[in-house]
Each structure stands twice: as structure tokens, then as C-alpha cells.
Amino acid sequence: PGRVSLENMKSPPHLATLPYRLHTNRELGLMLKGEKPLAFFSDWYEQRSEVLERYLGLFDRHVQNGSFVKREFIEKTRSSSWRVHVFLYSLPHEEWRIDAMIQLRSSPGEWTADHERHFGQLLGYEDWQNEYWRVPMSRSPTFRCPASAAATALPVGAPTQPMARALRRGLALLVAMACGGCAAPPLTREVVISKDAAAPIGPYSQAIKANGLVFFSGQSGGTTGSIEEQTARALDSLKAIAQAAGLSMSDIVSTTVYLKDMDDFSRMNAVYAGYFKDKPPARATVQVARLPRDSLIQISAIAAK
């Protein structure tokens, strides 16, 4: 399910980069391939969102044909009197994980790093993924995982009362693989400006920094000089913008090179290689009919820190 933020809840900005999040929306495919033993979904009790209903419907089809085993239970959050409706789906030969998960979520006391590690292990994650998730979260003063103090089992298909759509407003909590109660971080957006790079010639920014990523606008090679000179000029602009964002060329993870003439590819490549000597970023190179101001080359990029 897509990540839906909750008002009044805060999460550290690194949440969006965690490996758990990479699997969001892939639960069904991974389980049908037998590559994931258990899926975990939750929402506020009696306030299930339309998004979650849709995903549960997809999983329920495979419960009916015997591909998955389903269990539901209600847990009370540690930090409030609110209740959370949890849905668990396992592969038939992995049903023990459901019992273990209910027991884990029902354990009394504070939710610790060991609880979080065990949670990930039951979901089928490797140790490095569990540690990548657990370590930064355990250091965060804002992190509170509302695991249940008590869990009440529900029979599959148990009826629920009609939810109040006006109260929900799309703020239902969906947790696919991460800890129940962790909301997605709000989008942060910052314009990056460098006086040492070519100034924009239209209504766009040189780069935008958003949630740990930096998106560079296409940097032109200018209007004069050879393809080698224009390639160096475009890359120098990227370098200056990266520095303005607190990054270096080694932080660039992807580039797109736009050439006016693909016959210039090898000459461009010779210059390009000098800027990315170690672990060069992913790249796409395409020929275009024409570039602004009739430049020979333009290069855009994405960087991450």
C-alpha cells in the first residue's frame, strides 16, 4: 500500500530511504514467487482506508485458493487508547510466523531494538536490512513504535462497523513491512543555487533537494566550442551545483546525456570519464533533434547522500 502520512505524527527524514520501504507495493508479487513468507498490514480499527481495502482484496483472492493463510487481530497502541487492526498473510508452510508475530506484538513492556529485529526476521528480511532499519530508528528521539499491549484475535471475515469517512480523510495508517505506527516523512523541498554554474534561462531551478535526493536540471555545454569543451562546461556546472548542495561528483547516482549528434559520443565519453573515475553513476545517452541555444550537449543528473 502507498504510504499515507498522519497529521500530528512525526518521523525522522531518513524513513523514506530505508530498505523496508523499497518493498512497499511488492508484497503480493514477492509472496506469490515464494520469496517472502509473511505480509503485515495495519490500519486504525474500524477506519480502514479504501487503499487498504483494495490491497486486502487482492490478497484475499489467494487465501480463497489456498495460496495464503490469513489471520487478523486487534492491538492497542502503547502510547494511547487507540486500537489498530492488523492483517497477516503467510505462505501455507510459514503459518508459524503468524503465531510468532501475534506473540511478539502482544509482548508487554517497551518495544526494543530486539523486538524490531525479530519483527523484521519474521517478515523475511535479511540481517543487514534489519540492522539498517533498526540502528537509525533506535537513535531517533521521535521514534515510538505502538506495538500492542494486548492482542485480540478475530476470525477471518469478522464484520466491522461502518467507518466515518469524514473523520478519516485519507489519514489512515498503512504499514506494509515497517513498524506499525511509523508515518511517512513530509516532503522537504529546497532550491539549490550556484553562482559558478550556468544561470537558468527559463522558469526552472538549477537543482532541487528533496528528502535526501538532489535533482539537477539539464546543464548546457554553452553555445560555442567543440564537443569536448561543451562537455567539460556542462560537467563543471553539475560539479558546482553539487558543491552548493553539500555534495560531490561521487554522490551523483544517475545522469542523462543529451547529444545533438551521436557521432560525438566517443569524444564526449573521453571527457566524461575524467569526471567519474571511480564507481561512475548509471547513465543514459540519447540523441535529440535540437537543444536550447543550439548547444551540442546537455547533461542532467540525480544525486543522493
Offer a concise description of the structure.
The chain is an alpha+beta fold and 305 residues long. It has 9 helices and 10 strands. The strands form 2 sheets. A 6-stranded mixed sheet has the order 5-6-7-10-8-9, covered by helices on one side. It has a 4-stranded antiparallel sheet with strand order 1-3-2-4, with helices on both faces.
Report on this model:
The chain is an alpha+beta fold and 305 residues long. Helix content is 30%, strand content 21%. It has 9 helices and 10 strands. It has helices at residues 19-22, 27-32, 50-64, 96-106, 113-123, 127-139, 165-168, 227-244, 265-273, and strands spanning 38-44, 69-76, 83-90, 151-154, 190-192, 207-210, 213-220, 252-259, 282-287, 297-304. A 6-stranded mixed beta sheet has the order 5-6-7-10-8-9, with helices on one face. The longest helix has 18 residues, at 227-244. The chain is elongated, with a radius of gyration of 25 Å.
